C-alpha cells in the first residue's frame, strides 16, 4: 500500500493552480472537467509519477469552518519537504509569499509556515 493522492481544500481552483505551480513550483498533472469544478492535481517535478496533490474545491459545508479554525490557531493543513527551509523561505518571500512562521529549528527539523493564498497555512520542512 502507498499514498497515491493527498488533498488540500482551496477557495479558487484557478488561483490555487497558479500559486502551486508558478510560486511553489509544482507541475500540473491531471485536469478533468467535473461540472462546475475540475479534478485538478499537481505533482513534484522531481517525481512526476509520485503522489498527486488534489486542489479540491472547499465547497463542502465543513471545509471552510475547518480551514478557518486551523488558520486561526496557526496550524498548517499540510507539509512539504524542501532541501533547505531558509533558502526556500528567501526564494518564496522574493515572490511575495507571506509567512506566518519564520524558519524555526526544532532539533533535527527546521520548519516555516506560509499562507497559500487559498485559505490554508502550509508548512515547509527540512531535516
Task: Considering the chains and any ligands shown, give keywords for the structure.
127 residues; alpha/beta; 2,3-Dihydroxybiphenyl 1,2-Dioxygenase, domain 1; 4-stranded mixed β-sheet; 3 helices; 8 strands; globular
Can you put this structure into words, describing what you see?
With 127 residues, the chain is α/β, with parallel strands linked by helices. Helices cover 24% and strands 41% of the residues. It has helices at residues 13-23, 63-72, 85-94; strands spanning 5-10, 27-34, 37-43, 52-57, 78-81, 99-106, 109-115, 121-126. The strands form two sheets. A four-stranded mixed sheet has the order 1-4-3-2. Strands 5-8-7-6 form a four-stranded mixed sheet. It starts with a strand and ends with a strand. The mean pLDDT is 97.
Helices and strands, in N-to-C order? Answer: EHEEEHEHEEE
> Quick one: how many beta strands?
8
Our count of domains comes out at 1
Radius of gyration: 15 Å
- Assigned CATH class: Alpha Beta
Helix content: 10-25%
- Distance between the ends: 25 Å
User: Strand order of the main beta sheet, please?
Assistant: 1-4-3-2
CATH architecture: Roll
The multimeric state of the shown protein is: single chain
Note poorly predicted spans.
none
- General form: globular
Query: What is the count of DSSP helices, taking H or I runs of 4+ residues?
Result: 3
CATH fold name: 2,3-Dihydroxybiphenyl 1,2-Dioxygenase, domain 1
What is the residue-averaged pLDDT? 97
The CATH superfamily is 2,3-Dihydroxybiphenyl 1,2-Dioxygenase, domain 1
Strand content: 35-45%
Profile the largest sheet.
Answer: 4 strands, mixed
Structural class: alpha/beta
Amino acid at each position: 500500500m502507498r499514498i497515491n493522492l493527498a488533498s488540500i481544500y482551496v477557495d479558487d481552483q484557478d488561483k490555487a493552480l497558479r500559486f502551486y505551480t508558478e510560486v511553489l513550483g509544482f507541475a500540473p498533472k491531471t485536469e478533468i472537467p467535473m461540472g462546475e469544478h475540475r479534478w485538478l492535481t499537481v505533482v513534484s517535478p522531481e517525481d512526476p509519477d509520485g503522489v498527486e496533490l488534489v486542489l479540491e474545491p472547499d465547497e463542502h459545508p465543513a471545509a471552510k469552518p475547518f480551514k478557518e479554525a486551523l488558520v486561526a490557531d496557526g496550524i498548517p493543513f499540510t507539509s512539504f519537504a524542501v532541501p533547505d527551509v531558509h533558502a526556500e523561505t528567501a526564494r518564496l518571500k522574493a515572490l511575495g509569499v507571506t509567512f506566518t512562521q519564520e524558519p524555526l529549528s526544532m532539533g533535527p527539523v527546521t520548519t516555516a509556515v506560509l499562507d497559500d493564498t487559498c485559505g490554508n497555512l502550509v508548512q515547509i520542512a527540512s531535516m
